[in-house]
Amino acid sequence: MKVVFIEEVPGTAKIGDIKDVKPGFARNYLLPRRLAMPATTHIVKSAEIRAAREERLQDARDNEARTLAEKLEGISYTINAKAGSTGKLFGSVGAGDVALKVGETLGSEFDRHNIPLDPIKDLGDYPVVVKLTKNVTATVNISVVGEDGTTAADIQAKASGGKPKAEASTDDEDAETGDVEASVEDAAEAEAETADDEA
Q1: 131-146 b/e with 16+ CB inside 10 Å = b?
Q2: What is the pLDDT of residues 107-134, one digit of tens each?
Q3: Could you tell me how far CA 117 lies from the centroid of its own chain?
Q4: Are 28 and 55 in contact (CB under 8 A)?
């Protein structure tokens, strides 16, 4: 059966598309829900006009969304979460948590359904796609850290016998200080020996 779509049906057709569909699909699903109508000349003409109008509106929405995408693209957010010693979260970070951060940047509430994200269950850094319209997206970076600021790198360093960055940098500074002190002591000893030889 030939029908013209008067509403978008994701994965099947856009407004104004004319398609041959199975009669049962048309009678039981498309026609009762007013998603499509039989492809008569009058209805096809009406659907084409509507499709052109919808395309203009979508272009306007996309242009506005591109401005927002520039604001968001590549921005980094840190989300603190309760985690165990292996970096596993007690719970998860989901689309709602990211939507709150995005909303703060945009200055208005952002719908979590526009963030296709599987729950994050471990500390770490994650690129997350934010859907602004069906044609425009932006990617933000999410760093999930422990409540005390522990990162995935800290957990990894501990597991491999190293030390977290903060501790390691303190040790490096101590080592440098020790090297300087040792050099000063060596110089003092050398001077003392030279003085003894001259005497």
Answers
A1: ebbeebbbebebebbb
A2: 899 999 999 999 999 999 999 999 999 8
A3: 8
A4: no
